[in-house]
């Protein structure tokens, strides 16, 4: 389960577990709320610009380490259910 779905499930249980309703109503509510949750995040995009050089000495921040950090940032953004612009 991705981070966005985990966050949604936690929110859903915190909000609705105290309310008594038939299981089929709860399932329908869950489905509808999940669809709305996804739609609310579908328009969010993070634009990460790749910069080909730095303003620091090369030995302080080698290019491969910078690119690894960029890759890790994109992965974290995607795992939160947010789009990285251009992907």
Automatic annotation (TrEMBL):
The protein, known as: Uncharacterized protein
UniProt xrefs under Pfam families: Phage_phiTE_015 (PF26207)
């Amino acid at each position: 389960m991705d981070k966005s779905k985990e966050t949604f499930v936690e929110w859903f249980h915190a909000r609705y577990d105290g309310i008594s309703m038939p299981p089929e109503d709860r399932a329908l509510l869950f489905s509808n709320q999940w669809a709305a949750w996804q739609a609310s995040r579908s328009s969010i995009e993070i634009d990460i610009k790749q910069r080909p050089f730095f303003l620091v000495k090369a030995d302080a921040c080698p290019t491969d380490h910078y690119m690894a950090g960029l890759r890790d940032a994109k992965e974290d953004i995607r795992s939160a259910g947010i789009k990285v612009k251009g992907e």
